[in-house]
Amino acid sequence: MQNGYYQAVGGMVAQFNRLDTISNNLANTNTAGFKRDDVVIGDFLSVLKQQRDELPIDDNTKDAAQFINRSLDRVPHIVRNYTDFSLGAMRKTDNPLDVALKRSDRFFLVKTPDGLKLTQNGAFTLNDKGELSTKEGYKVLGANYFQNHQPITLPANKTITISSNGTIYADGEESGKLYIAKYNNNLANLKKVGDNLYDLTNLNDISVSGDGDYIASGFLQMSNINPVKEMTALIETNRLVEMYQKVMTSQMNDLNSDAINKLASTKA
Predict the structure, then answer these.
(1) What pLDDT, in 10s, does the model give residues 177-210?
(2) What is the pTM of this model?
(3) Which residues are CB-contacts of 74 (< 8 A; sequence separation ≥ 6)?
(4) What's the rounded Cα separation, in Å, for the pair 220 and 58?
(5) Cys-Cys link to 111, which of 119, 139, 209, 239 (CB 3.0-4.6 A)?
(6) What is the C-alpha to C-alpha distance for residues 178 and 140, in angstroms, rounded to an integer?
(7) What does the alpha-carbon distance between residue 142 and residue 108 come to, in Å, rounded to a whole number?
């Protein structure tokens, strides 16, 4: 009798999680290099259909039937979280230390207290040691980092320019080259870890890019968030939450009350 209530609860929880994702997207609309997140909402039955070939029992048998509940298996829930790696708009800054990636499968390599990470945020600066770093203070690594294990250090009081392949010049003299990492695996495997960074669990997943047109100096790649679409999704999600709430109220109050009254009036 309460199957409808369970389905409504599952649907509301799924929409709450979707609401968190949309809110985070909107909060990062102006964050350089940020990639929007989204969710896929499905049901338990769809997951079962995808995985039943891997079950240790045959389908359509008595043993297999215990995994099927035609009502509860329709409860909505989030079956997948994913990141949209499409390129964002380019914003001109004329800051020579701002660099924008032109390809969605390319990343900058940075060193953090938690190890090496990837980022697509090219808003760089120089720390007090003259080392190229992110705004958060993480060192930006060079193409030869795995040979010398040193950060990129630039001379003071010189004009810095960065070419399209990542080579850095100081007053026309080469002073280093950015490690422009090509991610060789499925981008869906990358996990966000905060500060606009992606976890790098296996160094074999990346390789340094050769010469090519990979970046635009004096530009920042902004987030790929479309505020209008996100606001529309936010309104839609709020309406779905209200709808599920009404269903839950109907299940618990109206239907239960009606069933109790009918049961009480039934003559022996």
Answers:
(1) 999 999 998 888 899 998 899 999 889 999 999 8
(2) 0.77
(3) 7, 43, 44, 45
(4) 55
(5) 139
(6) 8
(7) 9
